[in-house]
Amino acid sequence: MDGYMKGVHIFKRTSTQDGITLIETLVVLSIFLIMINVIPLFFSVFLHDENENALSDQEFQLFVKQLKAEFQKSRSYGVNESHNELYFHHENSLGHTDIVKFEQYGNVLRRRVNDSGHDVFLHRISSFFVQEKEIGIFLTIVSVNGNSFEAYIIHPKSFIRKHVQE
After folding, report:
1. Residue 54 burial (CB < 10 Å; 0-12/13-18/19+)?
2. CA 87 → CA 23, 90, 129, distances in Å?
3. Alpha carbon distance 46, 42 (integer Å)
4. CA neighbor of 121 nearest in space, from 101, 94, 97
5. Distance from C-alpha of 86 to C-alpha of 25, rounded to nearest angstrom
6. How many CB atoms lie within 10 A of CB 153?
7. Could you read off the pLDDT of 63-101 as tens digits, one per residue?
8. Which of 1, 77, 80, 144 pairs with 133 at a CA distance of 20 to 30 A?
């Protein structure tokens, strides 16, 4: 073949790779991003916190604030005989009375209106106990890890009625 090509210079491409192509860069970048997203998942398995499944004090305090708001909107309240359900009587926009109930359902505390719905207010609880007091309620919640939380909540209308009678 060299005999035929004498004097003719053919430009021959050499296979030296002096640069990186855009496709190579994108492939390396995508592999890097996938690794960055997956690495924390491996660490979460090894760094598992035992108290992660426990009810925190902040969660309980937030629940008490929400319960106080429900209390203020209600006309009256009640507790069932087992002391594990709390009832509020609200007047809705149509003038009808809605019964709002807080009850334990498995290991969650849920809110239901007229026995429908399933609004979860607290997770990871093992017991919910409510006592009706003279001017409010006393509630005790035990988390799945055994921590106990207590709160005394005063019903505004009961408090006013008691002080007017005195």
Report:
1. middle
2. 64, 10, 13
3. 7
4. 101
5. 61
6. 18
7. 899 988 888 888 888 888 888 888 888 888 888 888 889
8. 144
